[in-house]
């Protein structure tokens, strides 16, 4: 069986990806510590070759590959389910002669590149190198906006993101970069982007031979900087103008970038009858448990979807058959909760309603401390996914056991307000 290295997979993806890849003739090799996963995800990963490393620290990963030639022995390909890791996978692929996704994936992992390619679809943005912080202009970018977002060009899950106002100074920008905690903070391009008040939505789909296929819209619920729920499909809750604007932006991104084959999870802020592209997320499907939602909604399996995501990215000659996606108006409504704890805390265990039909994936292993919901996506305790009515009915029957006693999940229902 051929081997493929995967750098970047979340807890839900880990439940399905090993079996999915094996069915397509690939034995997965993961760069991760299976001990940091819980439940079904951990069980699947324990049956795979795993090499622990902090994939956010690229020098550490590259040093591990150089010191351990057995990692690439017999390996044919490398890929990721995290778009911010495509520059790293491309570097490793070129070093060791591995099949890998097309170069557009690595280029578009940079938010700055998307702003350069299609600025007309993005919020007002200033791009600058970390060393050029003195020229950062929060007042100029934030004039007439609801504030300013400072974020690194390559990141995910709100890591390194800081909320500023038009009254902040370049020195405040410098200090925020220094406090970001990113290993490459002073090497990155940074974005000062006008904060747009509105609803977070995303358009899911893929390109094949440069032609775009849309699978449906997601509408997400957030508490602060933590995404806590997702409604799919959300097409019927969006205006025709918003849907058209998003489709136009994604098509323009595929056309101008030269992308040929691969998935996308393009994020927008919906404002009335328009939308602003804030992240391209090219080369992967949506995170959280959205792959389970889309499988439910379209009557396919997460195995079908994830196998297609990985192999399509390796080129059409390697791609699994397209899943039988339905037209969005024929897809069944689903909901997923990426719940956390208000105020954070230690997760001792989780109890589920015994009669629920929903799928649960534990993200925070027993004994893990989680940050307060609202900080970023590290606040996730678990994923609870099902058909819309069932998931909304049963989420409050989930119990998180902590040293302070039983607590209920912190979440909001995506799409409950427009």
Automatic annotation (TrEMBL):
<protein>
    <recommendedName>
        <fullName>ATP-grasp domain-containing protein</fullName>
    </recommendedName>
</protein>
